[in-house]
Each structure stands twice: as structure tokens, then as C-alpha cells.
Amino acid sequence: MQPSIDVVIPAFNEEASLPLVLAALPSPPVRRIVVCNNASTDGTAAVASAAGATVVREERPGYGSACLCALDYLRRNDPPEIVVFLDADFSDHPQELPQLVAPILSGNADLVIGSRTLGEREPGALLPQARAGNLVACWLIRLLYGHRFTDLGPFRAIRWEALEQLEMRDRTFGWTAEMQVKALRQRLRVLDVPVSYRRRVGVSKITGTLRGTVLAGYKILYTVLRYSLGRRD
Ligand SMILES: Nc1nc2c(ncn2[C@@H]2O[C@H](COP(=O)(O)OP(=O)(O)O)[C@@H](O)[C@H]2O)c(=O)[nH]1
Ligand SMILES: [Mg+2]
């Protein structure tokens, strides 16, 4: 039997893009989609429910908070064998999910990062500040952990047991970096696979704003450094 695959989507005010993401997710192989509505003030929760997703709500702001809330739900409700994370902004191509989970299904990886630098990018999809931040973070990870990632992209797949073992805790923008460096520290089998990337629907809240870029950049570098110093939590 195929391992169960659930999708986690953190969403903050994404009523325009979320229906497109949900419609493009291939089922099968996806069993269940959990949208964490991060105290949105628009119709995010309503459009997610209408599309058949399970909706959970997190009041505390932050990308990591939303992911943690969705994982908490899965933990209490028949956890899957594989979790796929995906943004709500329709920048990624949800129909590429099978390529992302394939190395896990074949037993060759525990964590697969969808790499936007290896894949096809629509011009303007990955903002210059996001590319620069990625480069610096991946370079620092290589220096401190000895592994060469090509991206810290949001579209990723991981074995449930491996994820639980990571004991994720970042509540904001350090989430993706935390997962990758903890996976290296725990000697998980990690792999980058190319994914396509297009301009998001609506305006960017993180790398599209000065505040988001500075906060995300700081938090990502802090996270990469912190776990290299032997911190376990
Ligand atoms: N939970 C939560 N999600 C957020 C927050 N800010 C952005 N997001 C989500 O994170 C994803 C990426 O944000 P986005 O605005 O596209 O940033 P970008 O990818 O850097 O342009 C989207 O799915 C957003 O809905 C936030 O403060 N809390
Ligand atoms: Mg985005």
C-alpha cells in the first residue's frame, strides 16, 4: 500500500491564491490537506473549507507557528507517513508534488527540498533579495555543516517520523532553515529536487517588504548559526 501523504499549508490572508493551490494538488497521492489559518482577516478559512481542506486556526502570528499548529493537529489525528509543506500563495506548482515525494517513496531520502534555483523560474518570481538571502544561507550551511543545499524553499517533503525527531520549534521565518540544519545534524538523508516557481498571486508579505526581508534574513542566519554551536533546541 502507498504511504499516506498529507499536505500542510500555512496561510495568512490568502483567499485569492489558496483555491488555486488546493485545486492543483493531485489527489491521489494526497490523502488530506491541512490549512492553518493564521488569524487571517479575509476569507482564507472559508475558501479552504469550501475546497475540502481541513482548517485549523492559530492566533499567534508567524509562519512557524502556523506550521506547528497544523502538525499538532496531524499528531492527534492519524498522522501521515509523509508530510508535504507548501505555501498558500500559488508560487509553487502543486502538481509537482509527486516529484518531491518520489525519493522518499523509493527509500532514498528522508527530507526533500523543492529547489527553485535548480528549477524553472518565471522572471520576477524569486525576488533578488530572496535569491541573495538564499545564497548566503546555503553558503553558510555548507561552511558550518558541510552540505550543499541549493535553496531554502517552502515546498518540501519529509517523512513523518523524521520530522518528529527534529523537534521543530521556530515560530517565524527560521522554520525552513531550522528543518534543514537539524536534518543535517541528525544525519538524515536530504536531497534537493528542482521545482518550478512563478510570481505569486497577490503581494508578498515576507521578501516583498523591507521589514519581512530584514527579519527573515536575520532569523535564518541566526538559526543556521545557533544549531551549528551544538544547540539541540
Ligand atoms: N502563518 C503565517 N504565514 C505567513 C505570514 N506571512 C506570510 N505567510 C505565508 O507564508 C507564505 C509565504 O509568504 P509570501 O508573502 O509569499 O512571502 P515570499 O514568498 O517571501 O514572497 C504564504 O503562504 C503566506 O500566506 C505570517 O505572518 N504568518
Ligand atoms: Mg511567496
Task: Describe the overall structure.
39% of the residues lie in helices and 16% in strands. It has helices at residues 18-24, 44-50, 63-76, 97-105, 128-145, 160-166, 175-185, 210-228, and strands at residues 5-11, 30-37, 54-57, 82-85, 111-115, 156-159, 190-194. The chain has a seven-stranded mixed sheet with strand order 3-2-1-4-6-5-7, with helices on both faces. Strand 1, helix 1 and strand 2 (30-37) form a beta-alpha-beta unit. The structure holds guanosine-5'-diphosphate (GDP) and magnesium ion. Residues 87, 89, 91, 200, 204 line the site of magnesium ion.
In short:
This protein has 233 residues and is α/β, with parallel strands linked by helices. It is built from eight helices and seven strands. The longest helix has 19 residues.
List keywords for this structure.
233 residues, alpha/beta, Spore Coat Polysaccharide Biosynthesis Protein SpsA, Chain A, seven-stranded mixed sheet, 8 helices, globular, binds guanosine-5'-diphosphate, binds magnesium ion
Secondary structure: elements and pairs:
Layout: E1 5-11, H1 18-24, E2 30-37, H2 44-50, E3 54-57, H3 63-76, E4 82-85, H4 97-105, E5 111-115, H5 128-145, E6 156-159, H6 160-166, H7 175-185, E7 190-194, H8 210-228
Parallel strand pairs: 1-2, 1-4, 2-3, 5-7
Antiparallel strand pairs: 4-6, 5-6
